[in-house]
Amino acid sequence: MLRLEEPYNKLRIDPTPDWQGRIAPWSQDISLVDDRYSPADEHHIALEAHCYRLANGKVGGATGLVDPKEVLMGNTLYVRLAYKEPHCALCENGDMIPLEGRFYNSRYKPVTLPLSPLQRIRFELLKRYYIRRDRWAQRGFVRLSMPK
Where are the domains of the chain? Predict the structure, then answer.
């Protein structure tokens, strides 16, 4: 059974506006823990996530979603890539991310064929749909973790 641990809230000293001009004065770290394991066990923390909170308690930042930093699934711990020289064996050999879903604006990117205008429109619409779907799915989780 996963349990939401009390979120760690930190007041940001000099918050800057996000791309929509919103200012998020709070930085929040969130953890889901599995109480079947002792705190010393590596399986105890199932998810570590981060978000910026607006003054009204809503999630701010680029997407308005809680960003996972580490996710434990089974015995595999998924973490973000390093900022300096990021390498992912799955991405580099092309087995994990389909050609049309790779990050074309990223500083690290595999060499791929460009998307057609129709494909770009399709993926922009899909991206907007997925953001709305994820915001809807996170609505209860976001309320439970609001800063006090």
Answer: 2-80+115-144
